[in-house]
Each structure stands twice: as C-alpha cells, then as structure tokens.
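Supplementary material to the annual report.
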Amino acid sequence: MIDAANAYLEKIAVGSITPNKHNPRIVFRPKEMEELLDSIQQYGIQVPVSVYKEGKRYVLIDGERRWRCAGKLNMRTIPALVQEKPSDLANMLLMFNIHALREQWDLLTIALKLQDVINLMEKDGKERPTEAALSKATGLGRGVIRRCRYLLGLPQEYRDQILVELKKPKAQQKLTEDFFIEMERALRTVERAMPEVIDDKDRIRRTLIRKFEADVIPNRVHFRKMGKIARAQAVDADENEAASALTKLFTDNKYGIEKAFNDSVAEAYQERDTLSRVHSLGEYLDSLEEEEIDEEIRRALQELREVVDRLLEDA
Amino acid sequence: MQFTFLAEPLQPLALAAAKHFRINHGAKAIRAEQAVDAAIPFRPTLVGRTQDHYTLCVEVSDSGFSTALEEFVQKCGQRCLPVKAYIAAPPDVDDSVFRAMATRAASLGVGVLEVDPEISTVTRPAMPMTLYGFRRPIPRKFPTKYRQALVDAETLVVGGDPAKGCSRVYEEIENLSRAVAKEVDTRGWWRPLHAGEVRPAPDFEIGNWQEVMALLENHAQFKAIKPIAPAINRAMIAKVHGLAPDRNLTAHKPKSRTDLITRDQRLRTKFEFAVDTLHELILASKPLKV
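Predicted assembly:
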C-alpha cells in the first residue's frame, strides 16, 4: 500500500494542509473538540498528524481534529509525518486502518465510506468483495461490517436523521445508530419468518420510531423480542397469535413489544427455557460420580426430588 | 464564510451573529476564524472591524468559556489590543451554562450576544481590551450617597465608554469641591488681599468650576482651615483643580488604531485617578460636614 520507510517527519504550515475528502469522520462534536483544544493548548501536539504531498499542498491522512485545533489555536506549523501519496483505494483503506481501529468512530460514518471501499475494491478486483475480504482490507470486524450494512440498508431520510442525532452530545442522542440497527435486525427477522405481516416496511418503521420516542418501546433491546415473536415456529408457539400480535404492534400506537411478546410467545419461550435447563441439569447430574456427591449436594438433591415429586403428583 | 473549527450546528448562529454586528453595529470585514494577532494563540469564530477602529471578535459557543477563550481575552488585555470581544450563545442554552457564561463575561469585560437566527440581542456590551484590568472602584469604601454614581461610572467604562465613566466621577468631585468652596467662603477662610488685588467672586453653585477651584487654590487661607480639616491643603485643592479642564470630557474620535490605544490608555488612567481623588476629597472634607 504505502512504503512507510520513505515517510519523514516535518513541521509544516497549518495553512498548507487540506482535509482528506475520504475521511469517514464527518461529525465533530463540539464538546469533544473543546476538550482536545484545551489539551493541545496545554501540552501542544504530542503526536504528529500524517499527510501526503499533493502539488504544493498536503492532504491529511490522519489527524483532522488535531489540525482543526491547531488552526483554532493560531499555530503556524504542525508536526507531520509526510508519506507517499496513496491510490484512492489505499487512501481509504489507510483511513480505516488508522482510525477505525484506534478510535470510537460513529458507525454511520464508517458505513457511508464502506460503500465507497466496496465500489473501489469491486473496480480493482472486478468482483464484489466478500465480508471476509472487506474485513481483512479494512481491519474492521465482520460484526461491524454487518452492522454497517444494516445502516446502509436504511432509506436516506433515516440516515439523515442519524446524522442530525450524531451531532448532539452522546447523552442527548435518542435515535441512535444502535436503535436503528436493533430495529432493522428485528424487521429483517420478521420479514424472513412472517413476510405476510409486513405490508409497508417504511410505515412500520415510522410507527416503531414514534413508539420509541414516546417510550411505548422503552428500550431498544426490546426489538430482540420482536424477532422472537416472528420466530414463534421455533418454539412451537401459535403462529397465528404471533402474527396477530405483530400486526397489532405495527398498527396500534399504544401497544408495546413487551406486551406483544407476553400476549403471544412468552409462555412458549419460557417452556423452552425450562426444558433446556432441566435437560442441562439432568445431563450434569448424570455425569456425576458417587464420590463427588458430598453432604451439601446430597441435601440439595433431596430438596429438588421433593419439589419434583410434588410437581409430578399435582400434574 | 467557511468555518474549520466551529461545529456545524453552531454555524447558522455564527452567520446570524455576523449579520447582527454588520447591521446593528456597522461592523465591517467580518471573517471566519482569522488570527487577531500572530502572538495570540486563538482564532475567534468571527473577526471583523468596528466603525471606531476596534477589532471585533465573536466566539460562538453553547458551552461557555473554554480555557483557550479565557486565555485569548487575557492576552488581548495584557497586550492592550484594541479588541472588543463578545461571546455569542444560542437562546436555548442551558440556564446554568448561560449564568456562568454571563458572570465570567462580566469579570473579563467580554460582551454577551444572545444570538438567534431571527433576532439577536446584546445583553452585555463589550469593554475594549485596551481597558482590560483597569482598577475597579470599590463602592463600599465610599459613603452611601456616592455608591450609585460609582456603579454607574464603572458600568459605563466596562460598557466601552470610559469618557462618560470619567465624567460621572468628575461630576461628584465637582459637586463636593463646590460645597467645600462655599463652606470656606461662609467661614471667611480667605487670605488677606495684597494691595490692589481683587478676590474673584464666582457663583459657587453654578459658576465656572475651574474659576471656583482657582479661587480656592489661590485665595483660601489653608492655615485657618488646617485645625478643622487638615487634609484640605493647597496640594489637595490643586489636584482637584487639575481635573477641572477634563470635566466635560468627551472621547474624540480616534483617527487610527494607534490613536485609539493611546486614547483608551489615557482614559483608563484618568478614570482610576478620578476615583482616587474623589475618595481623598471625601475623607478630607468630612470634618467640614458639607
């Protein structure tokens, strides 16, 4: 990609630097910038930015926030590691490898650039890169890539909504990337398992967002239960009841996921959990040798037997 | 206007602030994030020029004073730069943040602009940094009847009008020194006249103040005054007399930035001197019960 051996350290004029158009970081939250500004004012720039030369100017590879702060602090020069000019794809992959692994980037900003990486890799290799190839090239985990794909699958208006949200301080963000990922993942499960309940995906999205904003859905992880309702068949629950619950969930503004879950498949999942635990315990007990059963275990097993006997007598 | 540092959500506010200063204050050449001085490590959000040669600096912030901004203001003050600095905050900023911002602005002489894309308001004018660190009067050290005048005078200086601030203090000095002159006359504490000499007789209440002070300085018999008010001496009266020509001080319009710096520094010294003189005169004239 880039021959790092040819890189050299230099103090270059702040005004001669241009930000990198491929930098996936497009949101610079004021609070975080001010913290960095104060730190640089106090300690200076301790880590050089990375740039490459283009004509008489330099283009940033790494360090846009430091560069912006240097400008604000009226610094004339900034320490920079000057590297060779990379190709477009190498430039972008450098960005991912330098930034995404080191810093907490906003996922949407990664997702938006990931699409460019996919296009460039496709152009280079003549075929669409696999998830594994993308992961290897960008240094991103496959889980992150999948999450990015959920965001890329969102209609533009929701991506814009996330961008607006991202500009707020983290504590004030409500419709976060995680919210949309949980919602999209659940919707995809419903789409696969019960396509008949999805009449208009966009309308359903709007309903669910409204409910989340109004706290009818108080937590984004509740969407996992929405997926479980759609997979009613897996726990032998009544699929018609599950479908009705989902339909109501997608139309009734006051009907939450928790309620839909309890009304449809909660019992079936509870039963599956109970069975699974009983089987696990049975297997474990079966594996025990006589000498492993001390007085304490013996007492606990006797208590268990009493409970089991009582339950079976009542049944 | 291209902002490199200012967060995107705050950029419309910066544009609104620029518009406000352009339209309402006649500011010119407003630019984004420009250096005010090569040696000052900060570039405010907006930098422009006021009609009276000051550099206008506006920092747009929704979180109050940063360390860098405070240092900027202090450095401008230490270097006596002709800068008027404002902090511009959106109207929906948290109350506690706004209060802290306003308090800090007041102590640093920074103006406050409540900026809104529709209507912006200066809730506190900026003090020229050429007056930064001026010695503020301490009203509680003065008798009650003078305190309001001192508060008004300080407000005028901090608000960027040191000439009017000085005048407000001179007014109190004038009133008190006229009362002293009247008391001297009532008690007949005048020195004997030389042959052919005539003592001027200005009106102590409405006559020319300079003439009243000249009469006191040249004709009062300080030996007679000394047993009752020992601090009313020739030097004290001469000091007050020296202020009289400045009584109706109005700031002349400076022709250049250098002119502006010199004028402001002179006014700053005059103001501090006037407050000290008023304090001395009050103490000196106390035994006369004027």
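Residues 58 and 77 of chain B are 16 Å apart (CA to CA).
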